[in-house]
Design a protein that fits this description.
By secondary structure, the chain is α/β, with parallel strands linked by helices. Strands 1, 2, 3, 4, 5, 6 and 7 form a 7-stranded mixed beta sheet that branches.
Length: 195
């Protein structure tokens, strides 16, 4: 069986943001768990506002959609903007409407790791809730542990390593849960003859 494929998206319009560092830490943990990753982060997620009135898509939007279609699992790390996920991340997830006629509609049955990074616990919790709400609406299965990374203190080294034990535990646990669940789900689909 081929390795589980995990698409990791996150960050902000500012390259090397705390949420981008978080998704990179998760991606490394995903690979350590034996899966393969594709990263789409930071400015590569700046897509035109999702438009239901046209089928024209930019190369970046097409790359994102193909990456989702090829993935067995998704991990999303969003900064907290005014108590919710950023517009950039929400807009990228809105593009999944283009999959509404695919064999796998939206994120149906897909494990999704949800991570919120913000300056303060209140913002991390409300942001995590907004990510989980959208994942549920897209028929995805959020990982049992949702990540809340409070970036008001030192969490990441300048090189991007996670230096705060609680945050590192959350990020690595989410990676493990997503990979394990995706592998089990793929196995169950194979047994059922669906894949």
């Amino acid at each position: 069986m081929t390795p589980v494929r995990v698409l990791c998206i996150g960050g902000s319009t500012r390259p090397n943001s705390s949420s981008e560092k978080a998704i990179r830490v998760v991606a490394a943990a995903v690979e350590a768990a034996g899966a393969t990753t594709e990263l789409i982060v930071s400015r590569d997620l700046i897509l035109p506002i999702y438009d239901t009135e046209t089928v024209e898509r930019t190369p970046q939007a097409l790359r994102f959609l193909e990456a989702v279609r090829a993935a067995d699992a998704l991990i999303v790390a969003s900064p907290g903007y005014h108590g919710a996920m950023s517009g950039m991340i929400k807009n990228a997830l809105d593009y999944l409407e283009d999959t509404n006629h695919d064999a796998r509609v939206y994120l149906d049955g897909m494990p999704v790791g949800c991570i919120a990074v913000a300056h303060g616990w209140q913002a991390t919790v409300s942001t995590l809730h907004s990510i989980r709400t959208v994942v549920h609406a897209l028929r995805g299965w959020p990982s049992p542990l949702g990540g809340t990374v409070n970036a008001s203190g030192p969490v990441f080294s300048p090189g991007g390593a996670c230096i705060e034990d609680g945050a590192r535990f959350q990020l690595e646990t989410i990676a493990t849960q997503v990979v394990e669940f995706a592998a089990r789900h793929r196995g169950a689909l194979a047994i059922a003859g669906v894949q």
